[in-house]
Amino acid sequence: MLDVRRLRLLCDLDRLGTIAAVAQARSYTASAVSQQLSALEREAGIALLERTGRRVTFTAAGQVLLRQASRVLAALEETDAALAAVRTGPAGPLRIGAFPTAVRTLLPPALVALGRAHPALELMVTEVDPAHVPAALRERRLDVGLLNDYDVAPGDVDDDLGSVPLLDETVFLAVPAGSGCDSLAAAAGQPWILASEGTLCHEVTVRACAAHGYTPRVRHRADDFVTVLALVGAGQGVSLVPELAAAAPPATVRLIALPLRRRTRIAFRRGAANHPAITALLDFFRADPVEHRGGGPADGGDG
């Protein structure tokens, strides 16, 4: 019988590329990961990996097992969801990971409504950068998480994750109210307020400006949109701000709608969509779409 935990390590290796990366993601030693993969090969009765120095590649048998492992893990999620529906309905922990603006604007109504409708649910929210959500789902630190991407930085949900759309937003160019800047092209000569390097917000700004032939000249760096809008209002530069974070800008800020969209999705492990706790959350947003409720005040940074 093949060990499910070892199958997860095999999928991790395919996704991350090296045993060292798998060890880091799982908080194991590289030696422990190697030993577990060797044990999986003994269980399978055939070589799954080819090792050349520090390089590891999948054999034909390894590729076959990898495809089957993804199906097995999804089937286990489906089984767990089906049993939970029979056993308890919406109950127990539901760990939600979301970027800060969503935590402050989208989730509070959901938490209140779900708490009233399903008091046996243990709702737990953690602020998580969207870039870290997939790993947190795979490692079972989260049950659902919010992902987002932009027209200029599209993203795909991996095969081992599922998702449903939540929100589609306009992205604005925020400029000082007295500024003559009225477009992204005209902002080429302006100082910019950018998010930290390595975040999606930073990458989106760089790509959007590059499409107009320039690199933004950075004056300030800030990840919190309240701070960003305050700096813009103080005449310190311009910035890109998604609609959810721009519902109540300072009077000294002018927002210019751009032909740029940000899309947010609710993601979960493949096979888990019918778990009663996850279904309850999805049903709330289907019954009360975000677009009909509107966003809350500008608050937080989304990476």
Automatic annotation (TrEMBL):
Record's Gene3D superfamilies? Periplasmic binding protein-like II (3.40.190.10), Winged helix-like DNA-binding domain superfamily/Winged helix DNA-binding domain (1.10.10.10)
| Any one GO molecular function term | DNA-binding transcription factor activity
Q: Which CDD domains match?
A: PBP2_LTTR_like_6 (cd08423)
A single Gene Ontology CC term: protein-DNA complex
Per UniProt, residues of the HTH lysR-type domain are: 2-59
Q: A single Pfam family, by name?
A: HTH_1
Q: Which domain of life is it from?
A: Bacteria
Which keywords fit this entry according to its UniProt record? DNA-binding, Transcription, Transcription regulation
Which family does the entry's similarity section mention?
Belongs to the LysR transcriptional regulatory family.
PANTHER family of this UniProt entry? LYSR SUBSTRATE-BINDING, TRANSCRIPTIONAL DUAL REGULATOR HCAR-RELATED
The protein's name in its UniProt record: DNA-binding transcriptional LysR family regulator
Q: Which organism is it from?
A: Actinoplanes octamycinicus
Its taxonomic path starts at: Bacteria, Bacillati, Actinomycetota, Actinomycetes, Micromonosporales
